[in-house]
Amino acid sequence: MSQDLTKRWWPEQWNGYELLDAGDGARLERWGDYVLDRPDPAVIWPAATGVEEWNAADARFEATAKTKGFWHTNRGRMPESWDLAYNSDRLHLRFKLELTSFKHVGLFPEQAVNWEYIAEHLRPGDTFLNLFAYTGGASLAARAVGADVTHVDSIRQVVDWTRENMERSGLDGIRWVVEDALKFAEREVRRGNRYTGIILDPPTWGLGTKGSKWRLEDQIRPLCETVAQLVQPGGFIIMNTYSGISPTALEQLWRATMPEATLESGELCLRTRHGDWVPTGSLVRINP
Ligand SMILES: C[S@@+](CC[C@H](N)C(=O)[O-])C[C@H]1O[C@@H](n2cnc3c(N)ncnc32)[C@H](O)[C@@H]1O
């Protein structure tokens, strides 16, 4: 019998963010000066910390629908927005955070794993493409090490948010594209543009600029086939998904798309103060 252990990646250099505890369907997280309690359906085991610490959170998210809800804020202490710094050996980034009605605050802290990989593997003048880029952590990491960065997201407000993060991080010169990621990638193939590094983190439901919706399961193969044509030899692709596709399935898809490439896949995780792992998504790294 052979056995291949699933790899786990988790960020190790956060000071501003801390996963204090995870249990009973929720996470207790410190984001700078504020502690938030928000649902996480992946957390099916009991909490390690007593209820007093959970009750002392500055804000707690109550879900009213699958992806919507509202925040109860404690003691009127929560500002409308605040800053969070990420300082590691390689990177000094700064993000604006906000309590959104989708339970998010504008950052996926586990993505710091990808920021470090990007910063380690890019050199000044390399080209980097961030598809489904959200508030741009990966774009900032690539720009911070001197790469030419193209940041693509179909929602203009999200791109504006990233521009603020770029300025707060003391960076400039990112190329902004508000467009459907697949359409942009297809056009780049036709134009003959190629990139040293590419990251893509497609959501379960994609939203085009004109409000057109697509399901990831219908788009994932054309998406991967197109992105495969955009990477330079010796470069890298990182694909990440929070859509419930297993790391093995993601790896298989890339194995079929780029049979010659070297692949590694696993789960992107966070780790609590108590040493518990919280799975957040699937990750595959492709080196053609
Ligand atoms: C899961 S988030 C990505 C999180 C990101 N990896 C990070 O680290 O912050 C998905 C993003 O894709 C964007 N998006 C949704 N549909 C899109 C489409 N068709 N083309 C481009 N971006 C899209 C959303 O606006 C959102 O910002």
Keywords:
17 strands, five-stranded mixed beta sheet, Rossmann fold, 7 helices, 288 residues, alpha/beta
Fold and architecture overview:
This protein has about 290 residues and is of the alpha/beta class. The chain has one domain (about 5-285): 3-Layer(aba) Sandwich (Rossmann fold). The protein is about 25% helix and about 35% strand. It has seven helices and 17 strands. The chain has helices at about 50-55, 110-120, 135-145, 155-170, 180-190, 215-230, 245-255; strands spanning about 5-10, 15-25, 25-30, 35-40, 60-65, 70-75, 80-85, 90-100, 125-130, 150, 175, 195-200, 205, 215, 230-240, 260-270, 275-285. The strands form four sheets. The protein has an eight-stranded mixed β-sheet, with helices on both faces. The chain has a five-stranded mixed β-sheet with strand order 2-3-4-5-6, with no helix packed on it. α2 (about 110-120) runs parallel beside α3 and α5 (about 180-190) packs parallel to α6. The longest helix is centred in the C-terminal third of the chain and has 15 residues, at about 215-230. The protein is globular and about 55 Å long. It starts with 6 loop residues before the first strand and ends with a strand. The model has no long low-confidence stretch (mean pLDDT about 95). The protein binds S-adenosylmethionine. S-adenosylmethionine (SAM) binds near residues 108, 135, 152, 181 and 201.
